[in-house]
Amino acid sequence: MFDIGFTELLVLALVALLVLGPERLPRAARMAGLWVRRAKASWYSVKAELERELADEELKRSLKNATRELREAGDALRDGLRPPASGDSADRNDAATPARDDRDDDKPGAGTP
């Protein structure tokens, strides 16, 4: 996060020791640690909230896509079940009736009753 090396921390500790003195330095260090922990906790809380919001948005988007795909599949299924246009129905009716077999005429008793 911050680009602070060991030497910078050592110089900071020496300055703090000179400014605060040995009596107040431990209490100041505890307070600084407390503030750092609070800042970290706040940061993680904000980060977790943001991740939850993003997950919710992704879930909503996924649900919307699934709903759209189901609607399209339902429409396609309905289109497939609809009766065809009037010109096509005659062709389908001809195909649906069985073809007459000419061989039946050759059998005895098959023609006229």
Description:
With 113 residues, this protein is an all-alpha fold. It contains two helices and no strands. The longest helix is centred in the middle third of the chain and has 76 residues, at 6-81. The mean pLDDT is 81.
Describe the SSE topology.
Layout: H1 6-81, H2 86-96
Low-confidence stretches: none
Outline type: rod-shaped
Structural class: mainly alpha
Average pLDDT, rounded to a whole number, is: 81
Radius of gyration: 42 Å
Total helices: the number is 2
Fraction of residues in helices?
A: over 70%
Kindly state the number of beta strands.
0
Give the DSSP E fraction (strand runs of 2 or more residues): under 5%
Query: In whole angstroms, how far apart are the ends?
Result: 102 Å
What summary fits the major beta sheet?
none
- Compressed to H and E, one letter per element, the order equals HH
Keywords for this entry:
single chain; 113 residues; mainly alpha; 2 helices
